[in-house]
């Protein structure tokens, strides 16, 4: 007999409906539910089941749905580093190595920035519609990237894919957290994290295989059939409302056809549109934050390459970017609460809530997440560059060396999931991961053109273990800081989960750009000191394009230049890994409390079971 897991009888979605009223932004059912809830609570927010409670998935239905989420997450995570082994190929094709950092960050930056917005979108549209929309957007971006005829078009495709990938990565963890109990949440998150971790490593592996044996465009074509399968499976399996999917689609089309489009001509429509954009989606913060981070990353991209670091253009990028980021924080932390409509039955909240992220138990593990993803992205990308530029390996052969961190990451994720399920000791997992990451990052700096096979394989294991531990533990450490008896528990729970996704992808985005900046600047400085100048050394782009087709051996001057630049990237990764370790040490001591769920009065004591993962 299989052991069953009891789900707490609470609704599995967080709703944040707009004020009652008809129109393009509100469904009639939502209005009726809202009016009843508002009347019952006397205008106060209550943490209770909605009128139409969502029943958990059971048996095979649960496994199929969970499998579709894992497949979707694998697909979105695959795109993070699948370009890691095709950078030289694409740079030679479009003559732009200095922009290759945007092949990674062009995907990861919108991925990070929109993660906060997708969480908010899910509270308005629902999990299912939001998840399916994100898959469609991801597929469109993948198609644009696959058909790219220039570096700019390729980066544009990556940006669009990042919009969709953000929703996939954010909502997969949020939806899964609502389908299982506290005791099994660690195991479920570990399995999803396995999909994420494996994809992050398999990405460069597949990229190398396609670049060597087919074409780099297949790195993006492959997303189309896999994404289509994930879309269909999730569409058919995720149905907690127990409604007919095709009937719902017909009803949706009828609503679209019968929608009061005449309201578009009325001032009241634009008043409501303004409230939705400014207060529900916090568009001002999103715009300021997006523009700020983009300008900072552009400054890091062009600095020391296209312009000198002291040029007015680069200084302007950094100054304006930082001011916009600070402005977005001030707006959310101070201004938003002062200008939002004072309606107690509507929980208007900023994307970055100071009440949530100011808690040390939430902020510190997310600092560890940012630093770990930053360092790990640097290490994985430039491990591949090490084998290609220093050892002259093909993309395929270079990617084979990533098998070691794949195995290490998976084992660490599964081990941590088991430990968390048994003991609930989140901090122990974080500290272990932080210490291992710092040690592993330090050892990576020992790589050289003469390293033996054992060193080239073994040195990659510890960073993989660290990534697995911290990725899993940091999210859970943040989630358990939200008290379940809080009136806005569901809303804050989603906010914390999306904030973790934000820091994870922001760290990955900065890792992609800054590692490229450090490598390019270091190589450029070395080339400027070599006399007489090396052939084809007018720029780092030119040198790498020439070296890619004219490898001159590990004893050459070019290899010494590349090795020194790669080591500089690893030293930066070591600094970030050390910061992550310090953050883990100061993380919360709170454990995952496993309590027997109490039946909700509104469900008449009925409990919902699903088989153990």
TrEMBL record:
Q: Where is the composition biased (Polar residues)?
A: 1-15
Q: Name the InterPro entries for this protein.
A: MFS, MFS_dom, MFS_trans_sf
Q: Where is the composition biased (Basic and acidic residues)?
A: 27-38
Recorded GO MF terms: azole transmembrane transporter activity
> From what superkingdom does this record's organism come?
Eukaryota
Main location per the UniProt record: membrane
Residue ranges of every copy of the Major facilitator superfamily (MFS) profile domain listed in the record: 65-592
Spans through the membrane: 62-87, 99-119, 131-149, 155-176, 188-214, 220-238, 283-302, 314-336, 363-387, 399-420, 427-447, 453-470, 491-514, 569-586
Q: Residue ranges of region Disordered?
A: 1-38
Question: PROSITE patterns, from UniProt?
Answer: MFS
The places in or outside the cell where this protein is found are: Membrane
Q: Which UniProt keywords apply?
A: Membrane, Transmembrane, Transmembrane helix
- Can you tell me which family this protein belongs to? Belongs to the major facilitator superfamily.
Protein name in UniProt: LALA0S01e18954g1_1
Q: Which organism is it from?
A: Lachancea lanzarotensis
